[in-house]
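Work package 3, deliverable 3.1, input record:
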Amino acid sequence: MDLDAVRTFVAAADAGQFQEAAAELAITQQAASKRIAALERNLGVRLFTRTPRGAELSIDGQAFLPHARELLRVAERALMSVRTGSRPLRVDVIASRGAATGLMRDFHRAHPEIELDVLMLFDIETALAAIRSGTIDASFRAVTAPGRPLPEDIQSVRVLDEPLELLTGPAHALAGARSVPIAQLAGHRIWMPGIVPGTEWASYYDDLIAEFGLTIEATGPNFGSDALLDTIADTPALATFMGARTRLVWPATHGLRRIPVTTPTPVYPHSLLWHRANPHPALPILRTHLTTTSPGHRTTGTWVPAWAAPR
Amino acid sequence: MDLDAVRTFVAAADAGQFQEAAAELAITQQAASKRIAALERNLGVRLFTRTPRGAELSIDGQAFLPHARELLRVAERALMSVRTGSRPLRVDVIASRGAATGLMRDFHRAHPEIELDVLMLFDIETALAAIRSGTIDASFRAVTAPGRPLPEDIQSVRVLDEPLELLTGPAHALAGARSVPIAQLAGHRIWMPGIVPGTEWASYYDDLIAEFGLTIEATGPNFGSDALLDTIADTPALATFMGARTRLVWPATHGLRRIPVTTPTPVYPHSLLWHRANPHPALPILRTHLTTTSPGHRTTGTWVPAWAAPR
DNA sequence: CCCAGTCACAACCAACGGTTGTATCCATAG
DNA sequence: CTATGGATACAACCGTTGGTTGTGACTGGG
């Protein structure tokens, strides 16, 4: 199906005749006729009933018309998504099911008129480079990686501290606990596959291990969250960490348990990063939305890595 | 923008390389490379970063990808809308803002998984022919036109009696009335432009005029409901009829009044018509939905044309 | 150090899609 | 009844697009 033909179809449907549609599109009447004939041949139905005074939609044409308009609308938006200047706000989130995605969903609900593109970059270095080059407009990240202060031209605001919970199967030793002190996790096998060295997550868990003497197995390739959850559900000796706000798309029947961790509760600090000179009109709206809906952060009873602690 | 190029882009993004994408689409690697190069040229951005081991999405490519998928999805649905066999349920309504449209909206809310195409045919004759030929699946109409009994192979069920209300501007003599007996309308000018002779509406109003001695001016071309409402709002001597369920998209500030008509209340009887042998799986669901949510019809205090009265 | 595997460029060719010119149809006016 | 105007479709022509084949450049692994 050719988008030019669809455009011609919509123009002809609106005009009621091919000639005027052809004039609008700056082609000859014959070309418009050929385009629509080709479209009809591809679809296998007649879209217009031709009369000596114009062309009016057949019933199939009437049914097709709204779909054709939608198609052009979507094509237009697809084009806009890569047009510099007045393109959708591009926001990088740290994981597709994480808290930042939920925050963006909330933002979209609050401001459905703002066009959004949400993507996931590899690590904070990539994100910073993209923010500085203007390729993306904002990023949800832990505010700094260890030893690397934020550049001068990047601004940030802390928007959410997400508590980590323990995720176990029904047969796990801690499955019945309503909460578990972090000291009790020493000696339990905690499995976190797919943590890529060099990313903020790796730094975060390195610090967590060092601080509380945990044994985290980060080995093994990441076969996707489905495989991870499957293994956790079936293996009594394994557990994993998961952000409290992470949404699980998983049959509840598997009996996975989410157990809060306490004394202290490790939290992952999400900040929004952006370039101080970014002119995108939707960016201040996002910032305002996040700061006004942020629940704030407790500092007592929680733990964050030293490099992420508020100065 | 070429849909084939978009398809190639999505395939390459999924495969992570051009060669495999090209194999899926049954073209050569060079052709896929050219298609994506052309797409990048059209969009003005680089979608992939080429490596000697494949091609991975650039940031622009990541932003474009969901739009590309959506575009292909919409194109697929546009194609289905004219494919015989498993195409969306095609329902004809009598007016774009009338009660039947509202009923279909309710149905769509109740069954969002059912694909619908709603269209407006010229009159009941066209609708019957389209139902018999299978071009449409159902039609909302007054069950018969005068003197023309329903064919044997068409079935019908009465789903809604829609009361007619008087619509006036704020300066009209009846503007303050909470309701008006139909006998009081004799002598008032009632304006109904755009009623096409030969349609059910024309028959309906002919009967209404004959029964209650009204003077309805059906003259003048239809300049659209905006122009009609504009004139009604500004002309104290004019009023018009409007279905009680008709949704008005009109600034409330113009002070239009909707006044129920009584003793009796003229109602327009909407029936659903369909072919007894139509195999569309969604058709019985629509019928069940309509009959179970139908408010039923009062017969006392209401008026319908003799040809539409239940036998 | 070579090889396997990837993408890009060049040359060639068929097919698509545009234009111009023309025939046909029908409603309307004279 | 006929001429005319306005609409679509068909035919011929032709440039450009988009496919294939052949080849070169690049890079990571054995």
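Residues 161-267 of chain B form a domain with the D-Maltodextrin-Binding Protein; domain 2 fold (CATH 3.40.190.290).
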